[in-house]
From TrEMBL, chains A, B:
<dbReference type="InterPro" id="IPR000944">
    <property type="entry name" value="Tscrpt_reg_Rrf2"/>
</dbReference>
<dbReference type="Pfam" id="PF02082">
    <property type="entry name" value="Rrf2"/>
</dbReference>
<dbReference type="InterPro" id="IPR036390">
    <property type="entry name" value="WH_DNA-bd_sf"/>
</dbReference>
<dbReference type="InterPro" id="IPR036388">
    <property type="entry name" value="WH-like_DNA-bd_sf"/>
</dbReference>
<protein>
    <submittedName>
        <fullName>Rrf2 family transcriptional regulator</fullName>
    </submittedName>
</protein>
Length: 150, 150
DNA sequence: TACATTTGTAACCAAACTTGTTACTAATTC
DNA sequence: GAATTAGTAACAAGTTTGGTTACAAATGTA
């Protein structure tokens, strides 16, 4: 999920700085993120299901944010990416010893102990919005984030 | 890294409850973790380099904890697993657009914004020791964690 | 209507990664 | 010397990932 999370954030930050209501095509986004338009559209499917973006087909179509960038957090992105995937930590061995129940007990125990770690990370992710990402990008790109610059 | 982290924790918890100074063979550990002895030995290589365990070859050989279980945290395990691997979050796209520097800027920005999230998770992992994992296992395995039970 | 554009999605391929396995060497004990 | 056990290389099967092509559906425009 590594690159997907990063690419999704990249895309959302791009959409955040685009003209409001002006759809951005998967081709432009792919060019900016350095990937293939179909990869972007695949990602969009996930983001759309999560209610973070809206797309429109046809000429002049593309994708826009479904709500203000200030109301989309990195946790939303994280959850969207995670929804279609296994847990960040797949606790427990794959083939616990059938000969006793230590395997399943280990699973439960690790889940319980990892829980706070994951919760802490979620809280930190929830504190960052896509708007902040965009603003941070603006600071680091002195000339601003124009269409030509990615 | 999913299963490796879990299996490593499993192994360390097992070693923590073993007789102190009594080496445990990779075969026994593999049987408990439901994997292959060679997989365990591979993992041991990493844990040994991280200074968490010590091994001894030959008849009666095996592996013991290199320091008390109360002084080994899940963060130590996490770091050991991560040392030989890419970051948890590979921030930044794989192929940033060469045509401008948004790619690298995005990379820096995401690293800065994800930083607190990763730090929060690390702090939570550092708060849990292998001894706690072992004790938690003991609570959940009423009969205790005997050699026969995994 | 015809056509160009753009998304949605399936299908496929190649590369990378993971896990299990075999095989062999080195070290250690008896 | 024999048995045991770690260390490690090498390989195979399975899974995952990312990129790509192909094509249908939708939408705007002439």
């Amino acid at each position: 999920m590594n690159t997907r999370f990063a690419v999704a954030t990249h895309i959302l930050a791009y959409l955040a700085h685009a003209q409001p209501g002006q759809p951005v095509s998967s081709e432009v986004l792919a060019s900016s993120a350095g990937t293939h338009p179909v990869v972007v559209r695949r990602l969009m499917s996930t983001l759309r299901e999560a209610g973070l973006v809206q797309s429109q087909r046809g000429a002049g179509g593309g994708t826009v944010l479904a709500r203000p960038a200030a109301e989309i957090t990195l946790l939303d992105v994280f959850r969207a990416m995670q929804a279609s995937e296994p847990d960040l930590f797949q606790v427990g061995s794959t083939n616990p010893n059938a000969h006793c129940d230590l395997g399943s007990v280990m699973q439960e125990t690790l889940e319980g102990l990892f829980g706070p770690a994951i919760e802490a990370m979620r809280a930190a992710l929830a504190a960052v919005t896509v708007q902040q990402v965009m603003q941070e990008l603006g600071k680091r790109l002195p000339g601003g984030c124009t269409e030509a610059s990615g």
